[in-house]
Structures are given as C-alpha cells and as structure tokens.
Specification:
The protein has one domain. It contains four helices and no strands. It is mainly alpha-helical and 65 residues long.
Length: 65
C-alpha cells in the first residue's frame, strides 16, 4: 500500500508541476488533437482506428478458446 501511495504521489507531482504547465505542453497537446480531429481525414482515421480496436477487443475472447 505504501508503494502505491508513493507512486501516486510521484505521478501527481509530475503532472501538476509548474514546469509542465509553464512549457504549455498540455495546451499544445490539446490544440494538436483539436486540429487533427477537426479535419475530415482526422475524423475518418479516428473512426477507423476505433473500429479496429473494437473488433480486436470483441474477437480476442474467441481467439483464446
């Protein structure tokens, strides 16, 4: 339990550190994906990837039998 708590504390400190926000990483991350998904090609690719992942998850149980 102590290791889990320490791990969560480290992750939280890395995510909410001032250097991560000062660099604008999350703003750039969000704007990149907003631009990518804002185009027709981005939407089509997102739907195709989501469909492929869904088929993999659905059929994975049948592979193990």
């Amino acid at each position: 339990m102590f290791r889990f708590s320490m791990g969560m504390a480290v992750i939280a400190s890395l995510m909410w550190s001032s250097s991560a926000f000062a660099g604008g990483f999350w703003d750039n991350f969000r704007s990149y994906w907003a631009r990518t998904l804002g185009t027709d090609n981005g939407i089509v690719m997102t739907v195709l990837v989501a469909g492929a992942i869904s088929l993999f998850v659905i059929t994975r149980g049948k592979w193990k039998k």
